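Please, structure for the following, as tokens.
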Amino acid sequence: MVDPSALDPELRRELEAADACEEIAVVYDPVPEVLEAYAFEGRIGVVAVVGAGAAAEAAALDAGAIEVLTPATPRELALARLRNAVARFRSRLKLERAVADLGREADTNERHLRLAAQLQRSLLPRSLPEVAGVRFSTAYLPRDFVSGDTYELRLLGPERVALFTLDAVGHGVRAALLTTLLRSLFRPLQGEQVRSPGEVLGELNGYLLDAQLDESPTAAFCYGLLDLPSRRLCLANAGHPSPVRIRPNGKYERLGGSGLLLGIDPAAYEDFEVELEPGDRVVFFTDGADPVYDERFLRKLVELRDLDLELQVGGALGEVIALDEEGRPEDDVTAVAFELTTE
């Protein structure tokens, strides 16, 4: 049996000080069941003081003691081993607590991101416009919970449809906030008067520049205005991939040019107008992580032109979207398409 009073006075004082800490217990000649109980709980480190003998030391370590001392351990060595064991155990507890805190914070952040994703999706059109002579289709695949992409399909009275795709530069919450801001500032009408796409983009660009936001956020935005009686599409483009027109015979063309991204410099955005024909399909789409994504997507759209519009767009995207190791798109993916039917 170990007599604590027979230990070196300084070592005894350090053992008593360690035992006074809530995360350390000093136990003399412990039976294995006691050490195993402490080890199972995991929040208290046990320093075992045992009688001389390698077998007793090994048994205490096997049962979960963080350090084992004997009366025969030289004083300086015993003090160093005790201090190191206590410091290591406290560091381990601190790390475990930090990891637990991060886990709780991550859970909270994930809940917040899921809520943000729900709110962001709630801003999207709840249904596609029902218009005689036109079919619509959309695709929306965020890379993360929240997206830097969004789209709009909105009837402006009985004869016009406003549609856009928007891609904020970057990813994550920052891009999603910019997307939400631009959606809220989108004003296709002035009173009852329909505004031109170029005028609308110019106003959005001015808002971003005047806001003087940190890090000067930018966005690509393509806005089209479809006049139903004349089948004319007027659009303006701010740094966005040009929409593509696909004819029934497989010929296709990109529509319009592209101006500066929103948020870079004061700029005027030109309107481009084209008259469409029955059977034409037009696809607005954001770009992907792959530098040749646009061309690959266009080729697939042409290959699948005989399918229904929704199957054509979905099938083309399925062929060209790059996925990461977790099976997520490497970039946000959005497309809005319409077809002028012969009805």
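The chain is about 40% helix and 25% strand. The first strand starts at residue 24 and ends at 28.
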